Amino acid sequence: MKSRGLWGRIRNLVNEAENNKKPTPKRIPILKKKHNKILI
């Protein structure tokens, strides 16, 4: 259940960053790395 909330927040942050075309904060790549580990 909590993982879904994290996914939603990350997706929202990524979508906002893409829409605004602003430099993404360093936290997003770190979260992506964690998700890659989870997916693997």
How many distinct folded domains? Answer: 1
Tell me the β content.
under 5%
SS-based structural class?
mainly alpha
Average pLDDT, rounded to a whole number, is: 68
Number of helices: 2
Rg, Å, rounded = 11 Å
The span between the termini is: 19 Å
Question: How would you portray this structure in words?
Answer:
The chain is mainly alpha-helical and 40 residues long. It has one domain. The chain is 80% helix and 0% strand. The protein has helices at residues 2-20, 27-39. The radius of gyration is 11 Å and the shape is flat. The model has no long low-confidence stretch (mean pLDDT 68).
Brief characterization of the structure:
This protein is mainly alpha-helical.
Features of this protein?
flat; mainly alpha; 40 residues
Structural topology:
Blueprint (H helix, E strand, L loop, with lengths): L1 H19 L6 H13 L1
